[in-house]
Amino acid sequence: MRIVLVGPPGAGKGTQAAFLARNLSIPHISTGDLFRANISQGTELGKQAKAYMDAGNLVPDEVTIGMAKDRMEQPDAEGGFLLDGFPRNVAQAKALDAMLEAADMKLDAVLDLEVPEDEVVKRIAGRRICRNDSAHVFHVTYSPPKQGGVCDVCGGELYQRDDDSEGTVRTRLEVYHTQTEPIIDHYRAQGLVVTISALGKVDEVTERAMAALSGEHAV
Which of 11, 75, 87, 190 is deepest in the core (most CB within 10 A)? Predict the structure, then answer.
């Protein structure tokens, strides 16, 4: 299967992408991984991306598209792939359409993870990270530490990252609504969009997604 995964920040795209890719035996291709891999390997596209990022500028669509094209042409993606974070806007979606058409391929589905805006804010703004180890993550509502402000694992101080503040989250949501959300309409016109609720436990959302992708009724 060839799938594009979309949804607002805080929808759990990364988590669901990993589970779905494993269940479907296809590679999970995320924009973040593409950037890190190209930059660490010193590819020409990686050098271009790093130059823009170091200057504090957005990486142009053509660089991102080039990275995605290279990755989708790898042998492990011949039988399908799950795209996470790409395409990020309509221009990238149209470029992906053209790439697939040129390769005589097509998308099977665009999986839209739907989460109410207030829930997105609650999920992200409630995160607390350990200053000693960023892998130790808690949530004031869903997985609170035993002692407020203290990491259960190492006793380090828990803090809220600047980009997890409510104001920043709402700004990220606005960017999503204006730049990324329009691709849903782009793909809906092609009959590819499958929308599911991303509320509930991780395994419940995965089951819902697998049922929807297989054409079954998602509960």
Answer: 87
